[in-house]
């Protein structure tokens, strides 16, 4: 895949880059290694100060950064502005909380026959981050802010279609005060990842992306015995039960499916509706979806911009056609528009069967699958019936049912009467083929820490110089 900015709203290639040579990559890894040693001599407070400076820069540069993201991958300008703000919030969250999250944790010294025992969280070194284009700033920030706060250094291999946002990130951290090499963008294709992760100076990797990419990086990391965090795909269920507020559920369902032009890992993708309210919900939902305005992502009146690539749009349409050819019903959308740009209409498809691709595959575009179920048990069976387990949603005003959904949905998160979103305060990640490990919160920061046990025995305090002198 060539490394280039191509505007998805027009299909025009705006800027392309030669990939870095092996020698350039090796030199960058060397700088990351050196910067890690430099960070060893800094305090958490110093690093927190640099993160705060990064947040201030993000706020000050919000509009131009948002325009860059919209140009590179097609999200609406308003969504891109919000993403810059959220990225600044994450920097401030770790700037404020890193000291507490990294503080030594005392253990029960008596129980382990020590005079003192505690757990210390220490950084491990340069971490390779392989990142996707769909939230080109936020996905990187939720790795970078905690990793840098902890004293690690970052090597970013960003998606090949967002090189300018990738370069902006390197520049941002440098201007914020982090030493040269603390955060470096490697302009390389995915074929370079094996060599980078095999370098002994690179200590771990985090990937946000597709299942095949996760398997590939997991294999390399297994061979090299390196820690990984994998945030992969999802096909999140959105269950609607008879007691739900249907107007609200249909409104949130529309946003949950079409945010980011339908290209979010935690977008609700499968709408599983109890038969008692199916027709009413389906009518409201399809009407909301059909009313969304598709068009120029820079236009403030646009709800849904283009998909990020021609290949991505072709794949979405093939999944819809596969279902229709096998008897599924389209309630709205489903037609490929003519003209420039990789636009796709908000689409609702029902009468799905397990033989159709849409039943179990992730659809990465504004296309909703609608499933009719006749009981709680059937809702859970359909909801848990894919290989994914990223987020999940359930709509019910019944307290007992809420508890049951929290217990029974097999996913990294359960959101009741609301849309799945990520927050710096809450851990984020999946189970099953949606990956492993967690980002955000203190847990995300500790994924790339050496969780070091320190045990101090009898005599340690009195066996110093004074004791020997006697
Ligand atoms: P992708 O093809 O896996 O690309 C993601 C990143 O991985 C890019 O930097 C890509 O580089 C690189 N890559 C691809 N194949 C690789 C390989 N074999 N070895 C090493 N690196 C490789 O994913 P995508 O289709 O662009 O993005 C959409 C996917 O990401 C969806 O499945 C979505 O659900 C998932 N996603 C998950 C989360 C989450 O938090 N769980 C968040 C966002 C997106 P190139 O660009 O150079 O190919």
Quick recap:
The protein is an alpha/beta fold. It has helices at 22-40, 44-60, 62-73, 77-102, 138-150, 163-176, 193-198, 211-224, 246-258, 275-291, 310-325, 357-360, 376-383, 399-408, 441-446, 465-469, and strands at residues 3-7, 12-17, 105-106, 116-123, 126-130, 153-157, 183-185, 204-208, 227-231, 236-240, 268-274, 329-332, 347-350, 367-373, 393-395, 415-416, 435-436, 449-456. The protein folds into 2 domains: 3-232 and 440-454, Aldehyde Dehydrogenase, Chain A, domain 1 (3-Layer(aba) Sandwich), CATH 3.40.605.10; 236-416, Aldehyde Dehydrogenase, Chain A, domain 2, CATH 3.40.309.10.
Features:
6-stranded mixed β-sheet, Aldehyde Dehydrogenase, Chain A, domain 2, globular, 7-stranded mixed β-sheet, 18 strands, binds NADP nicotinamide-adenine-dinucleotide phosphate, Aldehyde Dehydrogenase, Chain A, domain 1, disordered C terminus, alpha/beta, 16 helices, 470 residues, 2 domains
């Amino acid at each position: 895949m060539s490394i280039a900015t191509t505007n998805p709203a027009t299909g025009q290639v705006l800027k392309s880059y030669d990939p870095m040579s092996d020698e350039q990559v090796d030199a960058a890894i060397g700088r990351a290694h050196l910067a890690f040693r430099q960070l060893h001599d800094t305090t958490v407070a110093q690093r927190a100060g640099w993160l705060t400076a990064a947040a201030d820069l993000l706020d000050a540069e919000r509009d131009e950064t948002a325009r860059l993201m919209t140009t590179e991958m097609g999200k609406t300008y308003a969504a891109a502005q919000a993403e810059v703000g959220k990225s600044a919030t994450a920097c401030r969250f770790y700037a404020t909380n890193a000291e507490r999250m990294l503080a030594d944790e005392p253990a029960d010294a008596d129980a382990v026959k020590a005079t003192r025992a505690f757990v210390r969280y220490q950084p491990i070194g340069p971490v390779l981050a392989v990142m996707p284009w769909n939230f080109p700033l936020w996905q990187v920030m939720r790795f970078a802010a905690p990793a840098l706060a902890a004293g690690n250094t970052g090597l970013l291999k960003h998606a090949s279609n967002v090189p300018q946002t990738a370069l902006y990130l390197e520049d941002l951290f440098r201007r914020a005060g982090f030493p040269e090499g603390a955060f470096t963008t490697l302009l390389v294709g995915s074929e370079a990842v094996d060599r980078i992760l095999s370098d002994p100076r690179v200590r771990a990797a985090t990937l946000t992306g597709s299942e095949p990419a996760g398997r590939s990086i997991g294999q390399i990391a297994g061979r090299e015995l390196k820690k990984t965090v994998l945030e992969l795909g999802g096909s999140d269920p959105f269950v609607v039960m008879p007691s739900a507020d249907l107007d609200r559920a249909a409104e949130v369902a529309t946003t949950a499916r079409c945010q980011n032009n339908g290209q979010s890992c935690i977008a609700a993708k499968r709408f599983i509706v109890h038969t008692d309210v199916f027709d009413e919900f389906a009518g409201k939902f399809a009407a909301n979806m059909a009313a969304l305005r598709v068009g120029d992502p820079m236009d403030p009146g646009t709800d849904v911009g283009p998909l990020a690539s021609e290949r991505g749009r072709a794949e979405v349409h093939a999944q819809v056609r596969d279902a229709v050819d096998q008897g599924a019903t389209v309630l709205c959308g489903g037609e490929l528009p003519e003209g420039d740009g990789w636009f796709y209409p908000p689409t609702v498809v029902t009468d799905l069967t397990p033989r159709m691709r849409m039943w179990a595959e992730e659809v990465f575009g504004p296309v909703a699958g609608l499933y009719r179920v006749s009981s709680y048990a059937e809702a859970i069976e359909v909801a848990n019936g894919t290989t994914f387990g990223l987020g999940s949603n359930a709509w019910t005003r019944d307290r007992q049912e809420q508890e049951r959904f929290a217990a029974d949905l097999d996913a990294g998160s359960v959101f009741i009467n609301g849309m799945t979103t990520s927050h710096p305060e809450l851990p984020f990640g999946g189970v099953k083929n949606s990956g492993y490990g967690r980002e955000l919160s203190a847990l995300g920061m500790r994924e790339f820490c050496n969780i070091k046990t320190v045990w101090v025995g009898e005599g340690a305090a009195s066996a110093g110089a004074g004791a020997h002198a006697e």
